[in-house]
């Protein structure tokens, strides 16, 4: 019998936990594959695990995660209805920015997760997921909140929640973008078409 999405995602997570494709594996406590519903209509993609995530093996469980998860709930989702992942599955030392080689070594895991889940919408959080899933070199302040279609996925870029914690002026836009994500996820059909 064909493997279901849940089994496929679990098998991917098992392989991610054992991945040695880049040197970040040497410093990790554990890899952070991502978590959520295999049938999620929306996938949120952050940058990389931080200290709390590395310790717990779960994405967005520290301070920025609390903001993200609270905003997701305020927009009307249950946390277990969505899927939350990162561009990098292992923590960079001292939470430094991801390096290009690390992103290239890790990207196939995220793509495999997205192809398995086939969400109606992907929300990119911050510049690394925006560069990977929309286009490199874009400025987040110019395109946040504007959805685009890439490789058959509708993608909505917004701020990374840590940027919002550093600059509270970004909070209203961040909330607006996540609320827009909720609305979009309800009007995109299973073929990725917007019905507005
Ligand atoms: N920041 C991220 O980008 N991802 C996490 O999982 C936690 C913090």
Give descriptors for this structure.
Uracil-DNA Glycosylase, subunit E, 13% strand, alpha/beta, 196 residues, globular, 9 helices, binds uracil, 6-stranded mixed sheet
Description:
- The chain is about 45% helix and about 15% strand.
- The chain has a single domain, classed as Uracil-DNA Glycosylase, subunit E (3-Layer(aba) Sandwich).
- The protein has about 200 residues and is an alpha/beta fold.
- Helix 1 runs antiparallel to helix 5.
- It starts with a helix and ends in a 9-residue tail after the last helix.
- It is globular and about 45 Å long.
- The chain is built from nine helices and six strands.
- It has a six-stranded mixed sheet.
- Bound molecules: uracil (URA).
- The site of uracil (URA) has 12 residues, from helix 4.
Sequence of strands across the biggest β-sheet: 1-3-2-4-6-5
**Biggest sheet features:** 6 strands, mixed
CATH-level-4 superfamily name: Uracil-DNA glycosylase-like domain
**H/E series, N to C?**
HHEEHHEHEHHEEHH
How far apart lie the N and C ends? Answer: 38 Å
Number of helices: 9
The hetero molecules present are: uracil
Itemize the secondary structure elements and their pairings.
Elements: H1 5-17, H2 24-27, E1 35-36, E2 42-46, H3 51-56, H4 63-74, E3 83-86, H5 100-117, E4 121-125, H6 127-133, H7 140-143, E5 148-150, E6 153-158, H8 161-166, H9 171-187
Parallel strand pairs: 2-3, 2-4, 4-6
Antiparallel strand pairs: 1-3, 5-6
Helix pairs in contact: 1-5
Bound molecules: uracil.
Uracil binds at residues 46-50, 53, 59-60, 62, 64-65, 86.
């Amino acid at each position: 019998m064909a493997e279901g999405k849940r089994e496929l995602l679990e098998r991917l997570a098992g392989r991610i936990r054992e991945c040695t494709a880049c040197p970040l594996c040497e410093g990790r406590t554990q890899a952070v594959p991502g978590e959520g519903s295999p049938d999620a209509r929306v996938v949120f993609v952050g940058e990389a695990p931080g200290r709390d995530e590395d310790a717990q093996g779960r994405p967005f469980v520290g301070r920025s995660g609390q903001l993200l998860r609270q905003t997701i709930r305020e927009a009307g989702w249950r946390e277990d209805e969505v899927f939350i992942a990162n561009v990098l599955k292992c923590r960079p030392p001292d939470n430094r920015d991801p390096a290009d080689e690390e992103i290239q070594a890790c990207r196939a895991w995220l793509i495999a997760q997205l192809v398995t889940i086939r969400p109606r919408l992907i929300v990119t959080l911050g510049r690394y997921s925006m560069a990977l899933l929309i286009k490199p070199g874009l400025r987040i302040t110019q395109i946040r909140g504007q959805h685009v279609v890439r490789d058959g996925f509708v993608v909505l870029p917004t701020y990374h929640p840590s940027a919002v914690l550093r600059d509270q002026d970004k909070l209203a836009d961040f909330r607006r973008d996540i609320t827009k994500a909720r609305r979009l996820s309800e009007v995109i059909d299973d073929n990725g078409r917007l019905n507005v």
